[in-house]
Design brief:
four-stranded mixed sheet
């Protein structure tokens, strides 16, 4: 219902206010219910309540399963728990087509708090995962959530088509929706400037021969990345990307043009999976 919900209540009659509160509570309880299902009753209920009731964010250690705990920012407006549930419990990257990745290199562009990075580093222990994230607060969480992993490298930067500097823009949708440069399309508030890097630069820096998996979730920045892919796309075996044509037209076209030679495409949740045929 958004931040304007309490203001709208002032113009309502008492029965309308009561109805609105019931609807709002049901939405919050559904969120609590999902967390309870995912994270067990003992942990899920208090985390869910903290998420919808706490006005100030707090960092909590969340038990994912018997072996894994991760840090998450919990509180109203925070998105870490939503991302965590998508990555670990819906697990779109567990697609059968990605099971045979055997390259030494995986790239996680738009790593956010590090949940996908950690998932990939554990699933592919013989690969090095390069995690790319421009937002400083998210990078801090990323470092905490991967500190015990020796096969993770962190680049505090935005992935785009060239090295340089660009504006970091907060569009008011949480840390997972930060946009960079042209991807902001004039929306939101500039909160700082960030270093930019490109896949050409990273390939040279790390001496990468092949990229087993390129995961890209960079809020519309995929337009620049895939439009400038001619020099490196032949080194990539598989791509998993969330496309953002709803506010940045051209994302899907840029991806399809870059991956015309890939033999497989499918959807897993919000991720488009593209896999090169083994002979290519």
């Amino acid at each position: 219902m958004g931040g304007s919900y309490p203001l709208r209540l002032l113009a309502m009659s008492i029965p309308q206010r009561l109805s609105a509160h019931i609807i709002g509570l049901s939405v919050k309880l559904r969120y609590v219910g999902r967390l309870t299902t995912y994270l067990s009753w003992r942990q899920g209920l208090p985390l869910g309540l903290a998420q919808v009731l706490r006005t100030r964010a707090r960092t909590k250690l969340v038990k994912v399963d018997e072996h894994q705990k991760v840090w998450a920012r919990v509180g109203r407006g925070q998105t870490d728990l939503v991302v965590l549930s998508e990555v670990w419990f819906q697990a779109p990257l567990a697609a059968p087509q990605l099971a045979e990745i055997n390259s030494r290199w995986i790239i996680d562009a738009g790593a956010n708090a590090g949940y996908t990075t950690r998932w990939l580093a554990l699933r592919y222990p013989n690969a090095t995962v390069i995690a790319i994230e421009p937002d400083a607060d998210s990078v801090q969480m990323l470092r905490r959530n991967t500190a015990d992993l020796t096969n993770v490298m962190i680049e505090e930067a935005a992935l785009t088509d060239a090295a340089g500097v660009a504006d970091l823009v907060d569009v008011g949708q949480g840390s997972w929706a930060m946009r960079v440069g042209a991807a902001s399309d004039g929306s939101g508030r500039v909160v700082g400037s960030v270093k930019c890097t490109s896949l050409d630069e990273l390939i040279a820096k790390y001496e990468i021969d092949r990229i087993g998996l390129l995961k890209v979730d960079i809020e519309g920045g995929e337009v620049e990345v895939f439009r400038s892919s001619a020099a490196w796309i032949d080194k990539v075996d598989a791509i998993a990307t969330e496309l953002h044509d709803r506010f940045r037209p051209g994302c899907t076209r840029a991806l399809f043009d870059a991956t015309a030679d890939f033999g497989h495409e499918s959807m897993r949740g919000e991720l488009m999976i593209m896999v090169r045929e083994p002979s290519q």
